[in-house]
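Q: You know discrete backbone vocabularies at least as well as I do. I have my own habits and do not want them to colour yours. No explanation is needed for now; the record alone will do.
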Amino acid sequence: MRLRVLMEPRHGARYEEILALALATEQAGFDAFFRSDHLLGVDPADPTFRPTDCWTTLAGLARETSRVRLGALVGAATFRVPGLLATIVASVDEMSGGRVELGLGTGWFAREHAAFGIPFPPTGERFDRLEEQLAVITGLWRTPTGDDAGFSFDGAHYRLEANRTPPRPLQDPHPPIIIGGAGPRRTPAIAARYADEFNGALTFGDRTGVQLAERFAGFARACEAVGRDPGEARRSAVLPVACGSTPAEAQRRAEVMGSELMRSTAAIGSPTEVTDLVGALAEAGADTVYLHIYDIHDLDHIALIGAEVLPHVTSTPERTGAR
């Protein structure tokens, strides 16, 4: 079992605040530090929200951390064209010494797109664009150096002509790709073709992971439909967390989430209770759990989970085929 930290601050953050949380994550022993890819917060009318670009900050973290893996969970395919995104991720991968992972989804926050002037196509088109983006990104990364023909792509939404200088990530064959979402059909089908990790979205209130297990089963069926061994890919879930040494401390941290709906899925309680809920996700099939952190200034929270939860869950045997 891999335990990771996912940062999504309610009010945004300055780079120095993001760096402090990433360094605390690394010091506490977690496997990875991920951040969300959003330009607005949970409350789009919140005037205190400070937007930052996901990959710009990850590039900075790549040079200022030494061990944790870094990535976005998940990036919006609407934000960046695929050739540019392939180059950005490859650059950050080199800067990090090969510690980057690419999480990518369709994008969903319509108000966010409107606020920043980013086109937001209908759902079907966003899925089409995501699929083409993944074809372009992996095609560029897999094109051999010195290939005279280069890489070309002629899709409905993107067209590349004879790119003979494709971006070169440090990891071979390329950084791991994470695809996630709750869609019952196209999400698992796209993930079966491209994902090194499938992230099954938790349903609000599904603390036991019953519906998560169903999404993992859907992904397995999608893999089998294209002749892929489902065991080749990791399976992950996001778990909002508010852990405390006392009930009052746990409740104080839970209040930062700001939403009763979010708290209905969260792990709120003592280290033992949080460990048990992580274990329930493991029973549902997850081999990787991203702990969703909202108060990025509460570094004691990270230290507590690292000391009292992490040692118990990382000893969980991995599923056969996880890598």
Observations:
- The chain has one domain: 2-313.
- Residues 319-323 have pLDDT under 50 and may be disordered.
